[in-house]
Amino acid sequence: MKPKILTTLPGYTAALFRADLLAGITVATVALPLSIAIAIASGAPPATGLTTAIIGGFLISALGGSRVQIGGPTGAFIVVVYGVIAEYGHDGLVLATLMAGIIMMIAGVFKAGSLVKHIPEAVISGFTIGIAIIIATSQLRDLFGLSVTDLPADFLPKIAALWSARDTFDPRALAIGAVALTVIVGLRRLLPRFPGLIVAMALCSAAVAMLDLPVDTLQSRFGVLPNTLPWPQIPEITLQRMIELLPSALVIAFLAGVESLLSASVADRMIGGNTRPNAEVIANGVANTGAALFAGLPVTGAIARTATNVHAGGRTPVAGMVHALVILLVMLLAAPLAGFLAMPALAGLLLVTAWNMSEPQHWHRHLAARRSDQVLLVITLVLTVLTDLTLAIGVGVALGLALRLRRRHVPEAEWHDPER
Fold it and tell me: Which residues form the SLC26A/SulP transporter domain (predicted)?
């Protein structure tokens, strides 16, 4: 459970620092707009996304069991965060995140990190694709410039509300969102190491400002971003509140653990590393506790940002710590500039995020899988979209473990005639 930084710093060279510094700056350019967009989609103030990336990202890199993991807010949390804020307010989310952090630290101490490998892949794919669908539909309002005051959280009522507002469609908003989406995808394919997210957001937001387009921006909807971190504070804690928020805290802890360990596993394959899973779980627990004390969002290892770090040359946890410090520096010096970000452009960014979350490169594998795995994936997906993550994860994991036992030909229990 020893943090990876303690084994990478001995023998650390100036050349390694230069590589980590460049990688950290590169990842920060990706994380900046993404953190803001995820916070907005979650129903939280935009600044909470930056706070989460700074506090949570730094702690995951400093204490984690992976050499190259990058932590921050991710799309996987959007659904559960939105639901918690809608029902319990932002204070409820902070307490749920704090509880999730403590749960993860306890799980890491008892070496539960290795248990993630027993979760069926079909379950993980099902709720990931389900979350991607929910994220994509939640961005249609800003992408099409629709006038919907209160967008319902539930999927079917949300679709009905968007359809009812179709007469308010604004082609200028769609044009801005389409340009952002095209630039992001185009630069990612042509120049994968180029900071395409920043370029897309800057181009679209500059066009909105210079042409004086009547399109919502970050500042027009949320006001000016703060240029400092909030002071840490402990949320109000009562037994009744903790009991109410326990299911949400368990879901946050589960998602954080699964996504972080999956991200670390992907990174290991890229660099030939060997993540310490229990150290990673403990680090995620500390990071979520820290983010909660600063009123931030849940935090976990981010697969896309971790891959960007590896491609940019990051090889030690220093790169992730640099990424967090760069975001802090930008927040301190250039927060007002973020107010010009166009909402349709951020919607385009989140549509790309949702598409990547669904992992279309693996769809053919799902279609070629066993029929039972396909059914499990679809059940988890439908429950995720139409009900909630707690039920989807519970049912999916239970069915998946039952299928695994059945495939191992576990003998049936021996029953005796009851004597009564």
Answer: 17-380
